[in-house]
Amino acid sequence: MDLPNMSTADRNETPPFPDDVATAPLLCLSLNKLLANDEEESNRLFSASKDLGFFYLDLRATSDGESILADADKLFVVGEAFFNLSLEEKCTYDFSRQKTYFGYKPPGTAVIDKDGTLDRNEFYNASKDDILGLSPAWPAPTIVDAHRHLLKSYMLSAHSIISLILSRLSTHLHLDPSTLPTLHRLASPSGDQARFIKASPQPSNDRRTALGEHTDFGSITLLFNRLGGLQVLPPGEGAQWCYVRPLPGHAIVNLGDAMVKFTNGLLRSNTHRVVSPPGAQAECTRYSLAYFARPEDNVILKRLEGSCVIPELREGEVEEEITSKEWILTKALGLRVAFFKKKIG
User: Fold this and answer.
1) DSSP tally for the chain: helices H, then strands E
2) pLDDT tens digits for 216-259?
3) pTM over 0.90
4) How many Cα neighbours within 13 Å face the side chain of 316?
5) What would the DSSP string read from start to end of 151-204?
6) Could you tell me the sign of the dihedral formed by the alpha carbons of 326, 291, 83, 205, in that order?
7) Which of 197, 238, 269, 319 has an alpha carbon within 20 to 30 A of 75's alpha carbon?
């Protein structure tokens, strides 16, 4: 199936990000330099992973980088075409009752705060294991099923980039470079997924948080945005929410909770949220594309052994024994309305 002609997916038609809003102080790293094992760039990666847990990654002028940028452009079109289907049709791919986070999540079916306020985002999650043929295929809409090859290419590039980041971080932790990548092998079952995201323009008199403040619960997230809306809360007393400005040719990368567990808090999984885009961008539909890398299903999320850099556990502290699969399923479904009501009921 050819890609549909979706003019709104064209980045050239979006209003510019305004210059008069506070933006997050993300370091801008070069994939090309990381591939070349540039020592200074690797040091900057480690600093960014400890200090904020968010950074830009310039993907240009590298094979995997150019590949994933091209795939992302096409997948923005696929995602928009999917979200243009009727709600009734999209909801046939909501598999949450089967206790999975793969498939479709309609808007208003997750809570964003302790008061039970509903979200304003819709997702479609495509499983890495499904797309690579490692597990039975989930039923999928025709527009997605017809572009499995594109999702596969995107996932392979994303996994390769993330493996490089994990290898460099392993070295800085004074571990074998393969330590973290071995916990995230491509051919092993895991909760890795590509996510299509849509946030419609909010009413001008009711622009609020569309996706509540949270940390990602996996290992590393690659995010592609064309509009603002993502905000991070920098560490420190009195910190204010800051927008993350989308940069062409770059991915926004952030670390998740699994990296905190592996390093006993040395690396940072930073709080973030999604609000209405700033300025004239608020009038546009916001599409995003992400890849979430998670540890393999059977990996126990606990402090890695053998590092002189990772802090020791406090005296008497006992880590919970929970697998990656258990952790992610609990976190992913925990804020769906049905599960939230059970939790507070």
Assistant:
1) 11, 12
2) 999 999 999 999 999 999 998 889 999 999 999 999 999 999 99
3) yes
4) 0
5) HHHHHHHHHHHHHHHHHHHHHHTTS-TTHHHHTT-TTS-B--EEEEEEEPPPPT
6) positive
7) 269
